[in-house]
Amino acid sequence: MRFDSLHLENFISHKDTTIRLADRGVILLQGRVPGDSAFTSNSAGKSACLPDGLLYALFGRTLRGAKGKSIVHRQVGKNCCVTLTAQDKNGAQVIIRRPQLHSDYTRPSVQIGAEQYIGDDEVKRVIDLLLGGIDYDTFCSALVFGKGDAQFFTQRTDAERKDILSRLLQFGELDRCALATKKTLTGLGDSMFAKGIGISQREETQQALREVLTRMVREAALRQQQRAERRAKLEHDAALLKKQLAGITDAIATAEIAHADCLRKKEEAAKKYLEINDAYEINKKTQLEIQEVQTSLTRHIAGLIKAQEEVQGLSGGACPTCKQEVSEEHSYQCTSVISEQLAYLREQQAEVSKSLGEVASQGWRDKLQTIIYVVAEEDAALKDRQLTLNGLHAREREIVQFYKNISSQLTEEEAVVDDESAIRDTTLQLEVSVAETKKLKKDLEVLERLMPYYQTWEVGYGNAGIRSMLLDEKIPALNISAEKYSELLTDGAMRIRFNPVATLASGERREKFTVEVTVRGQPTTYELCSDGQRRRVDIITTLALSDLAAAQIGGPLNLLILDEVFDGLDATGMERAAQMLLHMERESIFVITHSDNMASLFHSVATVVYENGYSRLEDR
User: Quick check: 144 pLDDT over 80?
Assistant: First the structure.
């Protein structure tokens, strides 16, 4: 991708700035703040122009971490937009536009020829394709130096150096593979651990189930025997109760017959009592009537006897009534008549006496008393039989209830514990657990076979594997670049060599990424170098790493930005650095500096001026 120009509209401190990026050669970018001696070139807006403007257009972020609304010019507060014009590998024009609070543009866009792509996701996808998939860090390392990982590479640890080189060489896929492998190994380990725990738990469960099953079988047999004994006893009791019930039923039938007979006798005695009582009353009335007749006859007889005596006394005398003389014949006649009547009455009296004797001799009172006694006895017997019958019925109900209870107990005995079902369920649980254990062991065997495979790839994707091999392959090219820049910057007085293997004092060789420094043919260390020598080592290392990153992108880029890389060098060092840049394979190299001593070393100088709250570019 070839960068042509960059336009900044209300971006950070720039109001309306356009900077040409193609075919600029080596150009010095300095700053100036008129009327403010405290800042001189600081805060003029150099870094806001480059590299921040370029990085924001491509990635939506800056080296200083500014993004979103924070990149909008504070005084204007709106209509911020960064526009980058470039060409793709086919020569088609590319326009990348990133707005912020802009009235004309609301979303970032990329236009390639007649095709336009709008939106954050689309813009990111297209820029990834245009840059060959390189990320922000790799792009910064290839184009921008002085601010980033490559700066002070020599001061990093072995792991940090390898990490920087990995990102420069775009080992992201290896990192993803390593991470995926590590996650897989962690997952395998966790799964193996979980399956091991599962197997152990299930084996413990199986042992417990076997013990439970043995106990259940033993207890089931005991319960079966106890149930059989209880059932036999209950059945025996039920048979006895059934026999007693049959006897009680027969006794009740007999008692009911006797009760009915007694009741019949009582009814007959009561009927006889009524008949005798009626006869007794009739007899009693008859006696009274006969007595009355007897009394009447007795009075008539007495009257006749008196009349006879009176008639006999009147013979030859006068009748007291009529005063006539009563003859003996008349007296005799009257006496005969009276005697006849008296004889008749006495006959009647004898018959009445005889009838009275006959009535009195019948004994109806005794018969009545006898019947009353019989009725009382029958009534008492009836009550006794009723009590007996009630007792028999109560006993019958008791026996029936006992029989029902026994039948219920027999039914409950069958339903209390379903031993066969419980044993079957426990056996099924044991079989399921055994099957699960077999499956877990089989899965564990598969995982155990996979573990060495992924462990091998963990090493392969790690620092000592493919990464190390690829680094070793890049070391010669890296050393060639370091040799070239050492010759140009120090005229061969200093040599920088990258070595992936360190030799210990014991003579043992160990994998360790080191930067070896030689000064005038004598080996030394970065820590023992002077400040100027350290600065040269850092510049050589930075430029060598730049070439490495550029090669990863697909070839030399047309742009390089060196931000304060040469500040701190002496006059000779600055002159050599300026000459060295002429030998670099870049169309445009922007050297950003705070030093006032470097302008004379460059044919092209651009100045960012900050005045009245805005930055502007003076380009000559």
Answer: no
Q: Crossing angle for the helix pair 531-553 and 466-490, nearest 10 degrees?
A: 130
Question: Quick check: helix, strand or coil at residue 479?
Answer: helix
437: Cα separation from own chain's centroid: 25
Confidence of residue 150 (pLDDT cuts 50, 70, 90): very low
CA atoms within 13 A on the CB side of 588: 21
126-157 burial code (b ≥16 CB/10 A, e <16): bbeebbeebebbbbbbbbbbbbbbbbebbebe
CB-count burial class (<10 Å; 0-12, 13-18, 19+) for 192 = middle
Average pLDDT for 35-56:
80
More confident residue, 56 or 562: 56
The per-residue pLDDT for range 517-540, each reduced to its tens digit, is 999 999 998 889 988 888 888 888
7-20 pLDDT, tens per residue?
A: 999 999 999 999 99
Distance CA 572, CA 526 (A): 21
SS (H, E, C) 97-144: EEEECCCCCCCCEEEECCEEEECHHHHHHHHHHHCCCCCHHHHHHHHE
State yes or no: pLDDT of 290 exceeds 80. Answer: no
> Any idea what DSSP says for residue 596?
S
Identify the H or E element spanning 542: helix 531-553
Q: Which of 39, 42, 41, 1 is nearest to 21 (CA)?
A: 1
Is the bond preceding residue 476 a cis peptide, omega within 30 degrees? Answer: no
Measured CA to CA, the distance from residue 441 to residue 424 in angstroms comes to 26
What token pair was written down for 531?
Answer: 């400040």
Q: Left (φ > 0), alpha (ψ -120 to 50) or beta: where does 470 sit? A: alpha
Strand order in the sheet with 494-503: 494-503, 509-519, 522-524
